[in-house]
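User: Predict the structure for this protein chain, please.
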Amino acid sequence: PSSTSENKLQYLSSQSKRALAEIQQSKAEFYKRQFAKRVSKDDAEGRMQRRTVRLANSLREVHVTVYYPEKVGSDIDNATKLRGICLHVHGGGWLWGDSHDQVAHRCLEMSKRLNAAVVSV
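Assistant: Here is the predicted structure, written as structure tokens:
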């Protein structure tokens, strides 16, 4: 191939990479805006706890987020008032943002409706 063809291919490749980066950024911002519309920052911070759990008889650790129906430290903090625990296993991948922006508002809503702690893995 000629150097002109190679230059065109390089230019198109760089444009494609730039366009993909812009799409990724816009998608991540979209999810952040959607989360902010559904949950106030204070409410989210008071009802979420990120934890690292060490698996029994293993050196492996698992990162989980626990969502509560009410702010931690309030009356609901007494575990006897919770109806149970719901395990939420998300799909992962996070091509457009992260679990906080895409899953947290759903887990917070589920926790409130069920009056249960939701553990997202």
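The longest strand covers residues 48-54.
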